[in-house]
């Protein structure tokens, strides 16, 4: 067994030596790149390895240029731009695509904010300022879609309505609020700070709750009456439109 293992080891060493000899060759001509020495300097009768050239396949990295608009748009009063992303469109995207799109929108927002600040400094109008509003609307829609997915996943796994566990409770003013649970180092019946919290309303608060509900009901009724009066005025002002609408309903 020892002889067999020794012969296998000798074969492996000889194979490694053959590979190293194939890599070692005559000196490469000048101007092809830089030399890469893989063997130590004190190795006897060893020539330099073939010189090689590095091939860069990564994208070119820009510096502060990404904080400014395309030079083609410099001096233009209006710049063409598309519509903002809607929630319906973003719901069809995967999480990876949403992650990439978020950073694209973030870079675009930083560029537009830089452009806005530069326009203020030069006391000039910003070209197509609606682009910033579109980017902000797209980021808000993306954030909403991501929150919807997180809520759906949490409801599926834990059944909790909110990200932080809690319960609907009534405060001292009679309002229904979401109370977030918190971990305490001592039991609740020994915690003076927790016992100072009141999750109920006193009897005299019910009268003010009724007044608040009446006020909200009057506001809603006033809005409906204003809408009805506005509709009546429009019908009197444009009778042909009201007749056409009635005929379409029939």
Provide a compact summary of the structure.
This protein is mainly alpha-helical and 250 residues long.
Topology, element by element:
Elements lengths: L1 H22 L63 H4 L4 H27 L8 H28 L8 E5 L5 E5 L11 H4 L9 H33 L1 H11 L1
Antiparallel strand pairs: 1-2
Helix pairs in contact: 3-4, 6-7
Q: What features would you describe in this structure?
A:
There is one protein chain. The chain is mainly α and 250 residues long. Helix content is 52%, strand content 4%. The chain contains seven helices and two strands, in the order ααααββααα. It has a two-stranded antiparallel ribbon. The radius of gyration is 37 Å and the shape is flat. It starts with a helix and ends with a helix.
Question: Could you list some keywords that capture this structure?
Answer:
single chain, 250 residues, mainly alpha, two-stranded antiparallel ribbon, 7 helices, 2 strands, 52% helix, flat
